[in-house]
User: Which sequence fits this backbone?
């Protein structure tokens, strides 16, 4: 059937849809033509005047028109969505020719560069890494190291006390006793890198917190020459083949004999050298043969087992290696200092 009004609505719908250029207006038009209050509603009044066949034919014509409009709208929707996606992709297009954003990546603190290097050297000699707590018992920090209460050697290692028996460890040496007790009479070959604390006035060469690496070897037939050879190898790996070491006798309550170890200065002993003050030697660490009392207290028979131990200050090694003049630079996080150690 041909109804003029239906024809008009249909043709207007087709024209309207054709003109649409956004999804929002597409929805408006859909509402206009296909919702319950659409323009087709006006045609319903006409229905009443028709015969049954007429109603059927008219109804079918309206439905066909609505179906056509729905199809047209959905086709248009797909088209518009595609256009919208294309526009978005264009907007978000990446220009690979633009210069890259430059992210600054920080470098390792020279303290850790050197600590890693030291650890690597000792791992290469077959040492294992041991650990111990920074908050330590007096028992391990002093007593088991042959430093009983009221021993004068305690004065040189005053520290921060948590309570009467608990303190911030003054050196990594308590790990010696801890490992000996753990290994229960078996041979030992460990290093222990870690932080230590002392009540010190902070200046160019002292800090209330610093790093040490402890070394401990316990076995049968260990002598001072094993200690000397070990440290010689360490120094040559750290500072170069030309360096020599020198052992001076010293005193630690937990080693006997005890030594202070010097490394030869690269200036060759020039009078005005700031590193060695013209002596040709720079003190680098302390060590010695583990005191029989220390072995005994942690379960080793000193007649059967001997041992050597040493303690190296990490900052000290780094300062000498890089020519750093002030220990405080390690802790200040000054990028002007740190960036000098950045590696690509
Ligand atoms: N613990 C000593 C110190 O901090 C160094 C040391 C370690 C000496 C091991 C002898 C043996 O001064």
Assistant:
């Amino acid at each position: 059937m041909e109804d003029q009004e239906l024809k008009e609505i249909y043709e207007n719908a087709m024209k309207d849809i054709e003109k649409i250029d956004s999804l929002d207006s597409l929805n408006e038009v859909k509402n206009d033509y296909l919702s319950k209050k659409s323009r087709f509603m006006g045609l319903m009044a006409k229905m009443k005047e028709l015969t049954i066949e007429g109603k059927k034919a008219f109804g079918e014509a309206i439905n066909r028109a609505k179906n056509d409009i729905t199809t047209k709208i959905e086709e248009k929707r797909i088209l518009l969505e595609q256009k919208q996606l294309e526009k978005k992709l264009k907007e978000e297009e990446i220009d690979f020719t633009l210069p890259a954003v430059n992210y600054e990546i920080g470098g390792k603190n020279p303290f850790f560069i050197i600590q890693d290097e030291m650890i690597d050297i000792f791992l290469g000699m077959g040492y294992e890494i041991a650990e111990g707590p920074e908050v330590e018992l007096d028992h391990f920090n002093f007593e088991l190291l042959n430093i009983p209460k009221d021993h004068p050697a305690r004065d040189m290692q005053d520290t921060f006390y948590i309570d009467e028996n608990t303190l911030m460890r003054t050196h990594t040496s308590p790990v010696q006793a801890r490992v000996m007790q753990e290994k229960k009479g078996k041979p030992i070959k460990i290093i222990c890198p870690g932080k230590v604390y002392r009540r010190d006035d902070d200046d160019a060469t002292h800090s209330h917190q610093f790093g040490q690496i402890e070394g401990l070897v316990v076995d049968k037939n260990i002598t001072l020459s094993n200690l000397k050879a070990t440290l010689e190898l360490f120094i040559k790996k750290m500072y170069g083949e030309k360096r020599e070491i020198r052992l001076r006798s010293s005193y630690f309550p937990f080693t006997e004999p005890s030594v202070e170890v010097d490394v030869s200065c690269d200036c060759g002993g020039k009078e005005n050298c700031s590193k060695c003050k013209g002596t040709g030697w720079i003190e680098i660490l302390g060590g010695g043969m583990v005191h029989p009392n220390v072995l005994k207290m942690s379960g080793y028979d000193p007649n059967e087992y001997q041992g050597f131990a040493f303690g190296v200050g990490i900052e000290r090694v780094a300062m000498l290696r890089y020519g750093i003049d002030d220990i405080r630079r390690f802790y200040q996080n000054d990028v002007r200092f740190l960036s000098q150690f950045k590696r690509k």
Notes: Residues 110-341 form a domain with the BirA Bifunctional Protein; domain 2 fold (CATH 3.30.930.10). Residues 52-91 form the longest helix (40 residues). The chain has two domains: 4-91, 110-341.
